[in-house]
Amino acid sequence: MNALNPEKQPLLALVNRETPLDPTAYEQKGGWRGVRRALAMSPAEVIEEVTKSKLRGRGGAGFSTGMKWSFVPKEPANERRKYIVANGDEMEPGTFKDRILVEGHPLQLIEGMIISAYAIQAAYGVIFLRGEYHLGLERLQQAVEQARAAGWLGKNILGSGFDFDIHVHPSAGRYICGEETALLTALEGRRANPRSKPPFPQIGGLWGAPTVVNNIETFSNIPHILANGFEWYLGLSACEDGGTKLYGVSGRAKRPGVFELPLGTTLGVILNECAGGMQDGYKLRAFLPGGASTAFLGAEHADIVMDYPTPEKAGSRLGTGLAILLDDRTSPIGMIRNLEHFFAQESCGWCTPCRDGLPWVERLLIEIEEGRGTEQDLARLKDAARLIGPMGRTFCAHAPGAIAPLDSGLKLFAEDFAQHIRRSTHTDRAGDVSERAA
Amino acid sequence: MSTAELTAQGAELPPDLVQTFIDMAHHEHHARGASIEALRLVQERFGWISDAHLAHTARILGMSQADLDGIATYFNLLFRKPVGKKVIMLCDSVSCYIMGQEQTRERLCKKLGVKVGETTPDGEFTLLPIVCLGHCDHAPAMLIGKDLYGPVRPEDIDAIIDEAREKTQ
Ligand SMILES: Cc1cc2nc3c(=O)[nH]c(=O)nc-3n(C[C@H](O)[C@H](O)[C@H](O)COP(=O)(O)O)c2cc1C
Ligand code: SF4
Ligand code: FES
Question: Which of A11, A280, B135, B143 is the most exposed place for a label (fewest CB within 10 A)?
Answer without folding.
Answer: A280
